[in-house]
Please model this.
Amino acid sequence: MQGVASMRVAVAMSGGVDSSVAAALLKGAGHEVIGITMEIWPPGRENGGCCGLAAVQDARRVAFRLGIPHYVVNLREVFARQVIDNFCAEYARGRTPNPCIRCNRYVKFDALLERARALEAAFLATGHYARIARDRATGRFLLKKGVDQGKDQSYFLYSLTQAQLSRILFPLGELTKERVRAVARDLGLPVAEKAESQEVCFIPDNDYHRFLRRHCPGDFREGPILDERGRVLGRHRGLAFYTVGQRRGLGIAAGEPLYVVALDPVRNAVVVGPERALYREALVAGELNWIAFDALQAPLQVQARIRYRHREAPATVAPRDEGRVLVRFFTPQRAITPGQAAVFYDGDLVVGGGTILFALDGSGEKESISTGAN
Amino acid sequence: MQRIYLDHAATTPTHPEVARAMLPYLSAEAFGNPSTAYAFGQEAKKALEKAREQVAALIGAAPDEIFFTSGGTESDNWALRGAACARARDGKHIITSSIEHHAVLDVCRLLEQDGFRVTYLPVDPSGLVDPEAVRAAITPETVLISVMHANNEVGTVEPIAEIAAVAREAGICFHTDAVQTVGHIPVNVDELGVDLLSIAAHKLYGPKGVGALYIRKGTQMAPLIVGGAQERGLRAGTENVPGIVGFGKAAEIARRELPQVIPRVRELRDMLRTGLQERVPGLRLNGHPERRLPQNVSVTVPGVEGEALVMALDQEGIAVSTGSACSTGATDPSHVILALGVPPELARGAVRMTLGRGTTKEDIERVLEVFPRVVHRLRAITGWRPETSCAGCG
Model:
């Protein structure tokens, strides 16, 4: 951004502080900035969250304040197909998806990026806390963590391709959240004090169960709750309403606390066990994307993260057949959850990542209870 | 950058004479409430009645058949609900078309919740409603027929006189949404034979926030807005005097200028239409080729998102629209374009250009230079190629 000649940049404006400041910084650096806001969820249905009408209006107010043109683009169809349909399908088969990752991959940095190109913008910028660098030797675009470790969002971006990375700017990558808020205040942006959104944007009330019942047409079949040895302990209301590591809402009285340790779509069963049963040493991931290189050829030492707020843990990633990798941790990890992303780091660098297919025990063999998860 | 406005179907620039006429009523000079007895009120009342005469004259109505409203949307809401509710004891069936404005369609949906049955007539590929289909849809329960005079997106002018004759024969109340036609083509309520007709001032170079519903003498109507005796007890609320005065002036100007404006706008429209057809491969024209508003060109551009085209043209200073925009400017594939039988993937490439009194030949020339260039660039992004003719493909 700095030192570069003025160019036309489209900024994905969500109406929040981060993307507003991203736009302001680019404008301040002398670029020709165009704000674009995605409309991805039917207006009027839920008005909160970052994809509702209120967000569009906030983005528009910021754009007016900055004196930049602003457009709203309707990406509802692609969002419904790529994010919502997948969200429903994954839950129905007992996985716990991460819709933000899919949205980044198929909506924000695909359909929206195309709109930016239609506006003849050289880049699409967003308010993500992450950095893009260029490897001088290989010419590859590299993805790095944001400087603010507490806000780093590189986890959600591991699936970006080289072509995508070459057209993206993350103006906040070098900044802390505190600094971003300060900039917003200094500029008098109307969203400077807006609360952080923590929820998935299309479920602003965070009530997943209600969302699944209302928007996912699939039948949520009831089934048994089993212990690790296959004994029936109770009934569940449908796999979609459970996630690995969950303790509450099982409706079972037992001597020791019980947790969901696996969801088995083959037997339509929720498998429960004591807390120690949540710890696994390895996982298999698929749907891989590598950023640091084209393909993984040999086992690699990495720091692996198995969910956004997971503290990354040392692991070895080894290639397997069928575009999969085996990730073996040095110490067992709690609640490895199929459907979530496993993202591999080398220091600040995002090496790559994939979707967790299932967890394994220490021997490298699939445990019987999780076999069904794939 | 030279800016070119080609979205006169969305709204029109307020005529300077209109703005001038309104000014006294926006100031302390003439602020009176028309419902009051003293001189202040009487002056306002006089201005109100003059405007009523001006609007009536434009559509060949009597002044006491004009009821001022807050605009086209209210007029449509009132026409549908007021006529339906006044006749609910006689029957609960309504006939309309599938290409109406949402100001009609959404009221129909609400009336369905109130126990009315609504028939949404299909249209042919050029957007025409068949009067015989209207006749065939009539049942003993039918109490209201509503078909728009001209479609706001594709510009097709409906055979309203024929449809109204069918309604009259059956003794059924007939409404037309004439928001797109009044002030743009000759409209005469007697020649059309309608009972109710909606108008919006801002579509004919008048101010926003004011419109009218024509109600033929003797037509039973229930009020929509109650709480006062204004507009002969049928539309409560202190009148928007400045807006109504501006509306009257706009109607007067339209009546005066229409004979000169129509041929000029039509000629420019044809130049734009032919020019685009020649310069943009694969471009399709929407709506009826002849029975159409003189100011409207509606096209579908394969391989291009209408929304992206609107944004890219805006960057060039040219304002066009995708058809019916929602409050944010984002658009869904239009229900009108889909009703014409255009496949959904093509419908996303629909763009509407509507000319106005101020449109010049230079404007059209510039659009003909920019539009094909922008389409070419957008198609390069989506990777669109012209289809090879498939005639005879085995």
Remarks:
- Residues 293 and 300 of chain A are 12 Å apart (CA to CA).
- Residues 99-118 of chain A form the longest helix (20 residues).
- Chain A touches chain B at residues 34, 37, 39, 43, 53, 56, 69, 71-74, 76, 114-115, 117-120 (CB under 8 Å).
